[in-house]
């Protein structure tokens, strides 16, 4: 769905589908180079990372496997609480594997922090993080994110996998949600 269908719900379109594809191409070249001699396992975080995972994996020129985790971060509306529960675990044993976590967005970094310590306890050969979007507070968190698509302002964004109340995930661009939708 393109943004013309929801234009009154958005205050601004931040990234067009073309810009998102171009940025992913740049990131995928770096990831290609990093993992060219390694067996790469992409771990996508459901459901937001579905679009990033689909596009990143296809932009790569190396083989990769894919697996998924679903976690719930308790919190209401547009805020995450950092209390995390695993809803769906990996199907893959990641011990001695080169794991790249693929995230849609990091806000406070609390969800990711939990996820990373959980995955680290499974003894992967390496563990890196790629996120398409990162908000300012996350940039201050101690979790080291290797690849960032865009650093964005501290506003609630939707589209390209990101939802509000289950909607807007299928928006091809990314935009800021108008406060009248959630206030
Ligand atoms: P934390 O704060 O733990 O939160 O880094 C990460 C999770 O919060 C959700 N989130 C958003 N979802 N637009 C969204 O659609 C946003 O602007 C946004 N900010 C945070 C998302 O589920 C992410 O994984």
UniProtKB/TrEMBL annotation:
One of its GO terms (biological process) is IMP salvage. It catalyses: IMP + diphosphate = hypoxanthine + 5-phospho-alpha-D-ribose 1-diphosphate; GMP + diphosphate = guanine + 5-phospho-alpha-D-ribose 1-diphosphate. This is Hypoxanthine phosphoribosyltransferase. NCBIfam families: HGPRTase (TIGR01203). The keyword Nucleus does not apply. Its EC number is 2.4.2.8. It is found in: Cytoplasm. Residues 18-164 form the Phosphoribosyltransferase domain. One of its GO terms (cellular component) is cytosol. Pfam families: Pribosyltran (PF00156). It comes from Microlunatus soli. Pathway: Purine metabolism; GMP biosynthesis via salvage pathway; GMP from guanine: step 1/1; Purine metabolism; IMP biosynthesis via salvage pathway; IMP from hypoxanthine: step 1/1. Its cofactor is Mg(2+). Keywords: Cytoplasm, Glycosyltransferase, Magnesium, Metal-binding, Nucleotide-binding, Purine salvage, Transferase. One of its GO terms (molecular function) is guanine phosphoribosyltransferase activity. Belongs to the purine/pyrimidine phosphoribosyltransferase family. Signal peptide: none annotated. Its main location: cytoplasm. The keyword GTP-binding does not apply.
């Amino acid at each position: 769905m393109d943004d013309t269908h929801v234009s009154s719900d958005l205050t601004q379109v931040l990234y067009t589908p073309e810009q998102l594809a171009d940025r992913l191409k740049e990131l995928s070249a770096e990831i290609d180079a990093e993992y060219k001699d390694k067996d790469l396992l992409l771990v996508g975080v459901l459901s937001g990372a579905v679009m990033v995972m689909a596009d990143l994996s296809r932009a790569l020129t190396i083989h990769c496997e894919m697996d998924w985790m679903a976690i719930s971060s308790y919190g209401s509306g547009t805020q995450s609480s950092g209390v995390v529960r695993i809803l769906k675990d990996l199907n893959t044993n990641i011990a001695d594997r080169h794991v790249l976590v693929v995230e849609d967005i990091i806000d406070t970094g609390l969800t990711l922090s939990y996820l990373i310590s959980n995955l680290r306890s499974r003894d992967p050969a390496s563990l890196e993080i790629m996120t398409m979007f990162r908000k300012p507070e996350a940039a201050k968190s101690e979790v080291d994110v290797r690849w960032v698509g865009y650093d964005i302002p501290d506003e609630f964004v939707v589209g390209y996998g990101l939802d509000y109340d289950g909607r807007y995930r299928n928006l091809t661009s990314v935009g800021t949600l108008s406060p009248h939708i959630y206030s």
